[in-house]
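> tool_call: predict_assembly(chains=three)
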Amino acid sequence: MNKLVFLGIIIVSFFAILAIFAPLIAPYDPGQIDIENVLTSPSKDHIFGTDSLGRDLFSRMVYGTRISLLVGLIAVGISAIIGILLGSIAGYYGRWVDVVIMRFVDIMLCFPTFFLILAVIALLEPSIINIMVIIGVTSWMGVARLIRAEILSLKERDFIYAERAIGASDARIISRHLIPNAIAPVLVSITLGIAAAILVESSLSFLGIGVQPPTPSWGNILSEGKSVMGAAWWMLLFPGMAIFVTVMGYNLLGEGLREKFLKT
Amino acid sequence: MIKYIIRRLIGLIPLLLGITVITFAVIHLAPGSPTDLEEQFNPKVSLEVRQRIAHLYGLDKPLHVQYTDWLGRLLRLDFGISFVDSRPVIEKIGERIPITLGINLASIILILLIGIPIGVSSAVKEGAFYDRFMTVFVFIGFAMPTFWLSLILMDLIGVRWGLLPISGIKSLEFDKFSFFEKIIDIARHLTLPIFVSAFGGLAGISRYMRSNMVHVLKQDYIRTARAKGLKEKDVIYKHALKNALLPVVTILGLSIPGLIGGSVIFESIFSIPGMGRLFYESVMARDYPVIMGGLVITAILTLLGNLLADVSYAAVDPRIKLE
Amino acid sequence: MFVPLLLLAAGPHYGDAIVVGSIGEPRSLVPILASDSASGAICGLVFNGLIKYDKDLNLVGDLAETWEVSEDGLEITFYLRKGVRWHDGKPFTSKDVEFTYKSLIDPNVRTAYAGDFQMVERLEIIDDYTLKVFYKEPFSPGLSSWGMNMMPKHLLEGEDLNTTGFNRSPIGTGPYKFEVWKTGEKVELLSNHDYFEGRPCIDRYIYRIIPDQATLFLELRAEGVDYISLTPLQFKRQTESRFFKDNFQKFNFPSFGYTYLGYNLKDPKFRDIKVRQAINYAVNKEEIIRGVLLGMGRVSTGPFIPESWAYNNEVRAAEYDPGKARLLLKEAGWSDTDGDGILEKDGVRFSFTIITNLGNNQRKLTAEILQKRLKEVGIDVKIKIIEWSTFVSEFIDKRRFDAVLLGWGLSLEPDMYDIWYSAKTKEGEFNFVGYSNQEVDKLLLEGRRTFAQEERAGIYRRIHEILYEEQPYLFLYVPDALPIIHGRFKGIEVGPGGIGHNFIKWHVPEGEQRYTR
């Protein structure tokens, strides 16, 4: 297992570096149209080949990393915040607050997430911000349940009673003591959540309802690859590989974290 | 048992209401949304569309009246008329749902048939090469973007090797086929979509199965069984498996929305006339009544699916005393 | 000795089916309502007009056997073919022509083609097979306007054409009879054995709807469709293999139409002619033709096809000159006051959305090139892609757009009244950009009144000149038509008007037929 987690860390770091240093790594301007070189196969000038408008695929892929990671991190960040908030309130206060919040969770879990996201995007029109927020707002349920479960068990512990005894406020107890101790399984969820968010964003972009041109996203590059299927294998291979490897990386990391936390 | 079912059904009502509330909230994103095409210089036009949506959902009335109206119409299964071809929404959705459900059902069966054995054998051989290999294998399935897999398979199997059809659920000459030929034709068309749908879901079930099995195998009663000298095969299959299997039933319920949602991608790619593709087409056509109807109906289906899963769980697990 | 005689005696081969693949679905099969290409394709086979164009683009009779035009051009007498029957067996007569005419001018019918028929003063039935059309004033497009498909009075009289079920179950006089329409799937037609020009050789016509260019092409490769329009990429790079050369035949000829970016002229940004001219200079059309069409097309400078006698060869396309574009924009009052690279004026950012239809990759790529080039002169462009029928009914018909990227299919008749006349702006009509120019209006009317081709040419060339100057559209390109058809179909001939003129003669030798059940 250790080896796989290590692999996960390497993959995640690799793409993070790609994203952060994109302008330095990308050899061309990702938006640079070059009509003379439409759909050329990989060569020494363009190591991943070029797309339908002659733009360098490698550069577009590198910048696409930024989109994937940005969406992944922010969407998951939003879902984590919502999830932690609702989950801890439900777990701590219990009784009807708990029931209401958990019912809400159950209701949200009934909707096919992708449908819900598509519906909201159709109404609000696609943009990167909308996508991040919507993915975040529709994937907090797992985190909420986890936090709630942890807090339910933690809140009966001695050190919590001690805090109450000295008159600490609820907010303080929740934020300073309960959440930090409950956080472990949530980290796993967050890591896996990033992978899921990246898949959702690329699916949306693939369908044409995600990241809009000219901004490159692995998903919308794949969509173009579909239009030219059979004529330009590089348009299908590279973006698909990129999504696949990144998602694998986060999954491995997440699984590794899960194993680690389970043992402790 | 009956009492349990009735209890659960009653418990569904607040959930159903909740679904309608959420969908109702989503609808309200529509008119006020800052669409790019808001015509400041041609107010008559955007006004007309607004009026249409407003009329459809009674948005000019106070909120609670709107909601009760909306609810009333839902109960009468009146989801409105499609903006695209003016057919009743319920009709459009109704003709597509069976296909998606059919594919998903076949998918689930496949996932169970393959995923459970993988999970069990991985647990039994915990830590061995086989276990690690299987882990990686199902991870690949989980990480693989469905649209990528669909495209690759479509190109390879459908076009280059010409083994299976690449779009639709039936051939052009379907009406002329004999009954048997019709079945084969549909099966051939659905092979790739079902495979793609199932491949992604393998990871969930098999991992869950595996960890349950591992957990169960460490239990005292298993040790006792072994100590008693029972054959290993019996230990695994008669005692451990049954107990590890139960929670899997609940997982099934949870994966339903995922399967329905995931159908958007492969149904679009393989041109399958199912619910997922209808949803996608409606989104691309901004056909709001169909979009809303789709949300409510699929959510309700998921709810029913969960109920089914819970009831089966209760029926199967002797420990659950139905209070 | 007998064998060669037998071969000679064998008539045309009947049988088989042709599967035509399309990304668009028809919207209505009521011929006078069918304004999109998908509906038009089906109606063209199910119905006939009084006249039509032959292979060399001469006007010949269709349902009319002969006709006479009076000296002053105010009267046309049509002598209709006798013995023509509707697909339900009833005879076609002059009453059907009268009925079609009345429907066209009926203000309650949402047809875009009323314009030509409103010029008719009255229509007089002489007998079942003879009728006279009287025009209010000389109307040169008159004769060719009777290419309009004729509708059956006995089935449609009293019906509301806008909502009649006939639109999904048409009955015509044409070479093919309507059989079935499965929404989202196909429209199927069967050959009309009693067709007055003779039984079509191909027994069945199946119009298969596959709303995605890539899947459509894959279906072609898998031989699931027989006839599609190729994209330039598919034409150049994906159909050169042994397989394609052996099994398919492809054609390349200029298409009858042009692609353009139409501005919503009610939008204050686009009302200023300098802005539109600036955009013309900011966009490099050659680049689009080379990059998107892979060279298979020509620059368009106006609303006619370059081969047309009405085309003004003097009108030169604007050079690609972003510097000039920026200057014009500045003169129009746009400047980048906050340094973000996008121009503003009176607090409004110069940002607009181009909408185009789903399923056409060339349009999407063209839009992206437009986006890029306009960004370089400080204009922010967003792209929105909408499914075709909604695109037409909700966005174009209802004028809910900033700019549309679209194309026109044209006929040989250069009269563009329906598209450019200032009053043609009702919902569903073709002047959806809202263009209004008095001189053009006058010229359009004059062009319709003049019969002498020389004179007409002069008029239309002037219109061409004005339109290019005023830029109500950003004229982009005339693409090549790139049809590909399965090799088993014989008898296809390319004429100046394309390959459709002798469709009923296309046939498949018996041994090669595929659809035989």
